[in-house]
Design goal:
With 539 residues, the protein is an alpha+beta fold. The chain folds into four domains: 139 residues, no CATH class; 98 residues, no CATH class; 112 residues, Orthogonal Bundle (Helix Hairpins); 131 residues, Tetratricopeptide repeat domain (Serine Threonine Protein Phosphatase 5, Tetratricopeptide repeat, Alpha Horseshoe). Helices cover 53% and strands 7% of the residues. The chain is built from 23 helices and eight strands. The strands form two sheets. It has a five-stranded antiparallel β-sheet. It has a three-stranded antiparallel β-sheet with strand order 7-6-8. A hairpin with a 2-residue loop joins β3 and β4. It starts with 16 loop residues before the first strand and ends in a 20-residue tail after the last helix.
């Protein structure tokens, strides 16, 4: 198949590998869909890796390294199951090794139809989250299949694109892309109407679409849009990206003249949403960059708590309009575009995470059903899924089984879940840090120092934690630091009344770390010759 084909007269040629600042995620998904391609789209961001698998142009599976979107959480958000069902399924998963959806069907908690719906929403959330990656590289490998236990199921890409634009692109970014429509008129292609109508848009969006049956100028359309300037802009960007507009000004349209960067904006337009909140209390002692940096650091710390209400800076009683206004305002304030104010890469990373968390909070709270489920769980936080040591122990055991089988990706995901269920448990955090170390595939001095710093920080919170001291001793043995190895080995021996000989477990950790690191592919799920009686980092 010729990968350099022209998609149509309104679109750029699809190039199978390139940079995201040239061909961003929304455009890539649209081009692959129109081409009807099957294969794996690999995306490399800054210190993050992601992939989307396509079947005949439809997204069918995805993986993101930023954070896992658990099946049980999605099913609960949709109102199909409760926290008790999640806990039951986790225990059954550890016993049987089945996927959570299969377990829930066996338990009679889900129907096949509900399973398909949950998988579709889970996939939509995964792919939508990848929209936050705007710099980096991509590569499409036609015919390549992903390594996943789940059966790929293709879903409609159009809801993904419009949701991704809404959640992860700022008004300034959308405005820059729509400059292509300046001094042109356009209308909705008749053949595209059936695709757009299946999106289930609100009455306001449908009213705006109906106006596009005839040719419109951009300014006229946005000035009278029922969804407002922002909503109308997102709708136009979606239609333009998907090739649903017939554009009239000159013919033929030269595809090479189309804007190739959604996220490259020369300047941020003046808007009350872009005012720096820190200026409410002027800081005369520092520069604007320092003021903005402090604002970002504080917000970054706040969103780590996974409190959607706090993230959007609203109250539980806030109306739908107030939630939407809060999201728009905060998305503008914490847009990655503003990282230039501080001239620091670390702020750009923080802003990317803040933007994703704000989008997730808006996704939950803007929908009445999802919002009710979330608030109900918030009221019973002591007994909720987020703090449950029993379920955490089940997830931790499942992680040990997966690590024993050499499946580091699955083990890491299960340990992330265990940490969410029991946030104060040092053992789970220690084991997760060790898994990420193995996945890195590197034991150079810089990486060893970085891992040691994380484990020592956990050690400071609970100095007599057996698992933490065993892993620290193993790490220092790998680093050739005999003094620190002996210190943590001695502590582990002292607190090991209920444990086996720590020296033997340290030896196994070092031995198995060597096997993964020597392979240079710690993230590869593969069988190892680890003794099946003793999981590598089960303590």
């Amino acid at each position: 198949m010729n990968m350099e084909r022209k998609i149509d007269s309104n679109r750029m040629a699809f190039v199978p590998d390139g940079r995201l600042d040239v061909c961003p995620i929304p455009l890539l998904i649209s081009q692959i869909h129109v081409s009807g391609l099957s294969g794996l789209l690999s995306i490399e961001g800054e210190k993050t890796t992601h992939w989307i698998y396509f079947e005949k142009g439809r997204p069918a599976a995805a993986s993101t390294s930023t954070s896992e979107i658990h099946f049980g959480i999605v099913a609960r958000d949709l109102g199909y199951i409760d926290n008790l069902a999640i806990q039951e399924s986790l225990m059954e998963m550890a016993r049987t090794g089945l996927l959570q959806g299969e377990v829930l069907i066996r338990l009679g908690r889900l129907t096949e139809k509900q399973l398909r719906h949950v998988l579709a929403v889970q996939l939509l959330r995964k792919v939508t989250r990848i929209f936050a990656i705007k710099t980096g590289t991509y590569r499409f490998e036609e015919g390549m299949m992903p390594k996943t236990k789940e059966k790929p199921r293709g879903i409609n890409p159009f809801p993904i694109i419009i949701n991704g634009l809404w959640l992860h692109y700022t008004p300034a970014e959308i405005h820059a892309y729509l400059k292509y429509l300046d001094e042109k008129s356009f209308r909705l292609l008749p053949a595209a109407a059936s695709h757009v109508n299946r999106l289930g848009l609100t009455d306001e969006y449908s009213a705006d679409l109906s106006r596009l049956s005839g040719f419109q100028a951009k300014a006229d359309f946005l000035d009278s849009a029922r969804t407002g300037t922002e909503g109308g802009s997102i709708l136009l960007a979606f239609l333009l990206i998907c090739g649903f507009l017939e554009i009239r000004s000159r013919s033929p349209i030269d595809a090479a003249e189309r804007p190739r960067k959604i996220d490259q904006v020369s300047e941020v337009p003046e808007s009350p949403h872009f005012l720096n909140k820190a200026n409410e209390k002027p800081d005369t002692t520092g520069s604007p960059a320092k003021t903005f940096a402090k604002l970002v650091e504080d917000k970054f710390e706040q969103v780590q708590r996974n409190d959607h209400v706090a993230a959007l800076e609203i109250s539980i009683e806030s109306s739908a309009d107030q939630i939407r206004e809060a999201y728009i305002t905060l998305s503008s304030i914490y847009s990655p575009l503003r990282a230039a104010l501080a001239e620091e890469d670390r702020l750009l990373q923080m802003l990317g995470i803040i933007s994703a968390r704000l989008g997730e909070a808006y996704f939950v709270l803007s929908h009445p059903g999802r919002r009710d489920v979330y608030l109900e769980n918030l009221k019973s936080i002591e007994n909720s899924f987020t703090i449950n040591p029993v379920a955490a122990d089940t997830a931790g055991h499942h992680a040990a089984v997966l690590e024993q089988q050499g499946k580091l990706d699955g083990a890491g995901n299960s340990l992330e879940l265990a940490c969410d269920l029991d946030p104060t448990n040092i053992e789970y955090k220690t084991r997760l840090t060790w898994i990420r170390f193995l996945q890195s595939g590197s034991n150079d001095s810089e990486n060893l120092e970085r891992v040691a710093a994380k484990l020592k920080a956990l050690h400071g919170k609970k100095p007599d934690d057996y698992a933490n001291n065993v892993h620290l001793a193993a790490l220092f043995e790998l680093a050739g630091d005999k003094l620190n190895h002996d210190i943590h080995n001695a502590i582990a021996r002292r607190v090991s009344e209920a444990h086996d000989n720590p020296r033997e477990q340290i030896r196994r950790l070092v031995e198995n770390a060597g096997k993964f690191i020597e392979s240079g592919r710690g993230t590869t799920e593969r069988k190892t010759d680890i003794d099946p009686k003793v999981p590598a980092s089960t303590t």
